[in-house]
Each structure stands twice: as C-alpha cells, then as structure tokens.
C-alpha cells in the first residue's frame, strides 16, 4: 500500500480505518508528519494500524515505510536528497529489503515523493534507480510521482520498474479526481496479482487525505 497522507492534516481516525481495512504487509507513506515531534506521530500511526514503523520521517522528507508482523526487513535506509535550490521543499526517500516471514522471496522497495520541478524529479529518479539496482533484487518503487503516466520520470524508471496497470484510476485529488500521480511500479521478477486506487469508504478517503491510496498484491517469482 502506498499513500500520500497530506501531513496528517485530515481525520486521523479515517486514516486508521482505511489502512486497517487494507491490512497491508508493507505501507509506504508520503507526506507524513513533518514538524518537531513527528517521530511520536509516526509511532502512534503505526500502533493504531497494527504496523511497525520501519524507517523514515523528517530525515527522509516525510516519507516512511511501515511493515506488518508478517514481514521481516533488512538493509533499511532513509535519506534526504540534496537541495537543488534554497526555495525547494526538502525531499527524501526510504528504502528497504522486505520478505515474508513464511515463504516468499525478498524484494527491494523504495517509498518516495518526487519534486514538482521536472529536472529535479529526473535527478531523484536516477539516484533512486541506482540504489534499487545495487541490491540485485526485484524492485518496487511506491510513491507520489507528481506527474501522470507518460511523463519523463515514468519513462526514466522503465528500465527498472514499470507501470503494472496503465488503465488504473486517478488518485488525485479526492475532492475532484482528475490526475493519476500516485503509483506502485514493479520490476522484473514480480507478478502483480491485483492493483488499484483503493478505499473501502470514499467518504473516509476524502476525510483522510487529498490523495487516494494505491494498493497492489505482489508476488516475487522464483528465479
């Protein structure tokens, strides 16, 4: 599951209900809490959703990864991209290798919120692509890409991860849906069994955030 939470400015109980209904093994968050004390907010969110806060927060530009008790994780990293300009918003990413505790093979996943500026988006994509490739595992990139399919960043990612559902519904905004800018992109060696922008209750989705969550059921194929 990947979700831009709009810095938790919406109804936190609606956030909890949506995540609990999805029951993800891995939750990638963008625009999580960003002010001092955000670590405690991440921990409260994890507890309310029955998840473990793996890494992320202000050090990763408000991105984070959470995991369930059904998943083990290793090689976890959270970092901030260099600022291209003093006016830019701080951006970052979280990466981890995750694997089901019972059966299943590992994959490398990144949670990221790409910048509004097109040149910066490409620079961040190239940096993330190198880091995902370094582990030699099937790769997944989950996040808010800040541009629709067919954009330069989607194309730059294609050698590593691709769009598993070109006809997937729009994700932004929940008040006036018009753009698909949130996605879970999967690489070679990963079968996508189900995919979609998802909420059990559209009203809850609107209360929770201005973005719809994206949910995918993935299976790592035997090598």
TrEMBL record:
Give the record's keywords alphabetically. Endonuclease, Hydrolase, Nuclease
Q: Name one Pfam family in it.
A: Exo_endo_phos
Tell me the ranges covered by the Endonuclease/exonuclease/phosphatase domain, including all copies: 1-211
Organism taxonomic ancestry = Bacteria, Bacillati, Actinomycetota, Actinomycetes, Kineosporiales
Q: What is this protein called?
A: Endonuclease/exonuclease/phosphatase family protein
Task: Check the record and name the InterPro entries matching this protein.
Answer: Endo/exonu/phosph_ase_sf, Endo/exonuclease/phosphatase
Q: Which GO terms describe its molecular function?
A: endonuclease activity
